[in-house]
């Protein structure tokens, strides 16, 4: 007869097990997250909206459509709670997107790179479902398993097909919860993988033929997909799949002032996560970067007098945010903390020059024809030229 197993007696030299108090303290001192999910970063605003929201909510929604729009565009509640703007753009466009999700239609956010498609998708999911993490990331290697379901092959071999051996996809989990599933870069996936969504979107069911069963979507389930309009021809959506989506086209910021506001807000948020100084970036430098990007995108200067060569780079708002954030990091750690022309020059060069065969010519022509002659921009011209000279020396030495 096997004797019962007893816990070893603790000796005088043995170290006591850590107490729950120590564990709690360790949890309290956990390092901050680099990028919290939207529902984590804005939990207070979401809770305040939920408490103040008396309007009708669609099935499984955490907030009413009105409250979702308020969360996205910002406002002040009756109790004085300030809701920050997450998206700066057309109110009607946002209302159409939210109204689509309140029906049984899926939503496709289409636009140029850097038009906040993913950002808007995440915040829509956070406001509606309280969970923005049910995501399928579209790539050339994304398989049907990521959209439908997969298998735990160890259990499949040992037990055969069963619900316990099934590995649900984010889409399947969203269907069972009545939540929002997100599909990022839809047109990056192969056509056969895209079309796995057709039955899900039209019949609101996901067949599992191996088990002779299906998953039926709980009320509130929907899909938000994003696609880059520059990806046309990569993997075109079938007409059958297109018909299952309502498409909302997200434009580039309409004005320079709007784009400056977007960049300033996002840089401040990212700066807090990176422990950069609380001071906002120098507005003059933000405006210069935004103007350069807008002029190179449009192929003409802001006054309409000078035509400029357009580089192959996207030069999106997201890249402008990256240039300013990189410049602030340089100024903080290697300067006096004040954002200056020399801090943004390297970021500009990296953002503009993507094709080394043509983009350097376009950039140099812009520097000589626009930046050099523009009043108050000589410091930026010199910083960019110095950087180019340093690069030439380094290349020659190598």
UniProtKB/TrEMBL annotation:
It comes from the Bacteria. SMART domains: AAA. Transmembrane segments: none annotated. Residues 103-255 form the AAA+ ATPase domain. Residues 1-25 are annotated as: Disordered. Residues 7-25 have a biased composition (Low complexity). This is AAA family ATPase. It comes from Frankia umida.
């Amino acid at each position: 007869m096997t004797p019962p197993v007893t816990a070893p007696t603790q000796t005088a030299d043995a170290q006591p097990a850590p107490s729950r108090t120590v564990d709690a303290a360790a949890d309290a001192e956990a390092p901050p997250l680099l990028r919290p999910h939207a529902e984590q970063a804005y939990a207070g605003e979401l809770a305040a909206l939920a408490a103040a929201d008396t309007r009708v909510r669609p099935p499984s929604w955490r907030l009413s459509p009105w409250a979702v729009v308020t969360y996205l565009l910002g406002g002040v509640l009756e109790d004085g709670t300030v809701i920050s703007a997450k998206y700066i753009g057309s109110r009607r466009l946002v209302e159409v997107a939210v109204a689509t999700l309140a029906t049984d239609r899926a939503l496709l956010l289409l636009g140029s790179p850097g038009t906040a498609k993913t950002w808007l998708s995440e915040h829509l999911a956070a406001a509606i479902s309280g969970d923005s993490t049910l995501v399928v990331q579209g790539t050339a290697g994304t398989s049907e398993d990521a959209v439908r379901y997969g298998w735990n092959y160890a259990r499949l071999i040992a037990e055969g097909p069963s619900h316990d051996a099934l590995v649900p996809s984010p889409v399947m989990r969203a269907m069972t919860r009545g939540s929002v599933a997100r599909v990022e870069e839809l047109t990056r996936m192969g056509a056969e993988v895209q079309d796995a969504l057709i039955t899900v979107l039209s019949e609101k069911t996901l067949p599992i033929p191996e088990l002779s069963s299906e998953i039926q979507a709980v009320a509130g389930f929907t899909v938000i997909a994003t696609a880059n309009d520059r990806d046309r021809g990569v993997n075109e959506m079938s007409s059958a799949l297109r018909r299952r989506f309502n498409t909302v086209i997200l434009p580039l910021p309409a004005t320079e002032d709007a784009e400056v506001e977007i960049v300033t807000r996002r840089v401040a948020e990212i700066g807090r996560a990176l422990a950069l100084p609380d001071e906002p970036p120098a507005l003059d430098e933000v405006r210069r970067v935004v103007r350069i990007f807008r002029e190179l995108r449009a192929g003409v200067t802001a006054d309409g007098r000078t035509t400029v060569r357009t580089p192959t780079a996207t030069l999106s708002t997201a890249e402008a945010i990256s240039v300013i954030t990189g410049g602030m990091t340089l100024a903080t750690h290697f300067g006096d903390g004040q954002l200056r022309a020399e801090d943004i020059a390297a970021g500009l060069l990296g953002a503009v020059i993507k094709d080394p065969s043509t983009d350097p010519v376009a950039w140099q022509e812009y520097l000589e024809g626009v930046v050099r002659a523009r009043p108050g921009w000589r410091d930026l011209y010199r910083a960019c030229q110095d950087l180019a000279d340093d690069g030439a020396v380094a290349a020659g030495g190598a």
